[in-house]
Structures are given as structure tokens and as C-alpha cells.
User: What shape does this take?
Amino acid sequence: MPAMNCDELMTRIQALEFTAVDLNLYLDTHPCDARAVADYNQVAAALAQTVAAYERVCGPLANFGQSQSCGRWAWVEQPWPWETQG
Amino acid sequence: MWVYEKKLEYPVKVSGPNPKLAKTVITQYGGPDGELGASLRYLTQRYSMPTSQVKGVLTDIGTEELAHMEIVAAIVYNLLKGAPLEQIKAAGMEGYYADHDRALFFVNGDGVPWVAAYIQSKGDPIADLHEDMAAEEKARSTYEHLINLSDDPGVTDVLRFLREREVVHFQRFGETLNIVQEHLSSRKFW
Assistant: This one.
């Protein structure tokens, strides 16, 4: 993956996670569609990789043990989603 | 439990303060067909659903609606942020301002507060899923009205995304209704 800045990584996370949300809802009513399950797994892996790249540079994305902080408690330092207009 | 992700499901960009548009969009925050009602309706109906699959649909769509509530909040917050009082008065939002300043509150476009009577939970999966399908169509229709009223291209773009999600949710609830009907009829002996 080429080096991306925080905004670019966030845009990619939003695109990947939206794909996962939509596939998730489809699979809820089509659980036997093996191709869709494979697509979901592929997107989930790419999402995890992108989230890890984002969190290394831009700060934690999730609370309650889903993300780690290095040194200071970074969770409360970055702006909130409604403040960034992105 | 739920985990919070510090991101919006879809990016929100507004052109600038616009209380007149905020006054209409806020109905999807706390109005009769808005996202608060949608999320709470599905998340409370799920407990008494007959199968694990239906509980999953309601959990996942209810959770996505929470993300939509946050998107609508981000639109309204940014449309009111820094809006001068003259604009707020010209938009007919001075009553809202008196009670809430530029904060978020669950009201419709005319300031009527959200009530639990907007939603229902019957313990009857056929009745509940029909309500859910109707709710998605009413929300789709509301987003179309808001798109007609919007004079901010950035807001219109987000409203189009939210409208499309109502169409997808309607489709999934329709499939879920078929699944439940099949499940209920397969348990009968003649």
C-alpha cells in the first residue's frame, strides 16, 4: 500500500467499512452465498490492515479496548467526527 | 455491548452556516420518521424476534441507524455552528435557540419533541417487520423532501447517501419478512 496521509487513510477506511456494512446486511438474509462470504472476508482483512495503518500515525479509532494508545491517552486528544467535516 | 468508532459512516461537508436548512434536516434527528426512532425501533424489537437470523438483521440495521443519527447530527451541528442570530431569527429558529442555543436536540422541523409513540414493538414479528418496511419508506420519502429543500450541494450529497440506505434496508426487511413467514408456516401441522 502506498504511503497515505490521515485524511486519505480515513477515506479508505470509510469506503472499506461501508462495503463491509452493506455485505453484512446482504449476508444476514443470504447466509449461504459463499461468494459474498468470501468478499466479506476479503474486505474485513483489508479494513483491519488499513485501520492498523491509520492508528499507527493518526491515533486510536475505537474505544473500550479495541485500539491501543502509545504513551499519552490519545483517545480524547483528536477531534471528534462532527468537528472535522470529513 | 457497543463500541464507538471515531469516524462518520459517510463524510459530511457543509458550505457554511445555514439555519434555514438545519431547521428542516433536524427532523431526521428527532422527527417521526427520523434516525433516533429508526435505531430505537429496531434495537428494541429484536429481543422478541423468533429466530437468530431476524435478531441479527434488526441488530445490524439498528446499529447502522445509530451511525445515521450521528451523520444527521453532524450536518445540523455544522449548519448551526457560527450562525449569526439574525440568520437564526430569519429561519424561524429563535424558539429553538431560546431552549437549546446551537446544541442538538430531538425535535422535528417545527420543534415538536421526539416521543416513543412514534415507534411500536408488538411482540408479533409479522406486525413489527411490516412497520419496519413502512418506516424505511417514510424515511426515504422524507429524505426526498429534504433533497428538494436543500440549497447546499454538500448536504444534498449526504442526504442522497442516507436515502439510498433506506432503500437497501427496505429490501432487507422485505427478505426478512419472507424468511419469518416461511419459518412460522413450517412449524404448523395440518
Observations:
- Chain B is about 65% helix and 0% strand.
- The domain at 19-185 of chain B is CATH 1.20.1260.10 (Ferritin).
- The interface with chain A takes residues 1, 3-14, 53, 56-57, 60-61, 64, 70, 73-74, 77-78, 168-169, 172, 175-176, 179 of chain B (CB under 8 Å).
